[in-house]
Amino acid sequence: MNDTVTTPKTRTKTKVERPRLHKVILINDDYTPREFVTMVLKAEFRMTEDQAYKVMITAHKLGTCVVAVFTKDVAETKATRATDAGRAKGYPLLFTTEPEE
Ligand code: TYC
Predict the structure, then answer these.
(1) Which residue from 28, 40, 44 has its CB within 8 A of the most atoms of ligand 1, so it is best to mutate?
(2) pLDDT greater than 70 at residue 1
(3) Which residues pair with 23 in a beta bridge?
(4) Which of 25, 59, 76, 90 is most deeply buried (CB count within 10 A of its CB)?
(5) Where do the Adaptor protein ClpS core domain residues begin and end (predicted)?
(6) Is this complex's ipTM strictly greater than 0.95?
(7) pLDDT above 70: residue 2
(8) What are the structural domains, with CATH classification, of the chain?
């Protein structure tokens, strides 16, 4: 019989991490009407009139505003859809995404 005892040379440590979330960021511009920005925020991000207005006016005053955080795929899809809604009307409305720290 083979009585050799072997000890493993490497160990596998399994670590499960939450997926990093990505921010959707609204960028101000001089041309898109305020009401249109608010309408897109309500439609694409399921915000109330109040929430949407606050995000819109923050971007308007400061230049940008974080809209919400999602997994990477969802953030990118929503940012693209919201940007396209503006483009369809000829507005330069822009939503970008970036990973959270
Ligand atoms: N600055 C625009 C205006 O005065 C309104 C606006 C707000 C546009 C926020 C884009 O992300 C934006 N009509």
Answers:
(1) 28
(2) no
(3) 69, 98
(4) 59
(5) 18-96
(6) yes
(7) no
(8) 21-99 (3.30.1390.10)
Task: Kindly tell me if the per-residue pLDDT of 66 is higher than 60.
Answer: yes
**Burial class of residue 53 (count of CB atoms within 10 Å of its CB; 0-12, 13-18, 19+):** middle
Confidence of residue 12 (pLDDT cuts 50, 70, 90): confident
- Give CA separation, 96 vs 18, 44, 84, in Å: 22, 14, 12
Ligand 1 atom closest to residue 93's alpha carbon, by position in its atom list: 10
Q: What is the CB neighbour count within 10 angstroms for residue 76?
A: 16
Average pLDDT over residues 66-72: 97
Smallest CA separation from ligand 1 atom 7, residue:
60
8 Å CB contact between 28 and 63: yes
Q: Identity (one letter) of the amino acid at 84?
A: D
Average pLDDT of the segment spanning 65-71: 98
Tell me the Cα Rg of the chain: 22
**Contact criterion met (CB below 8 Å) for 32 and 86:** yes
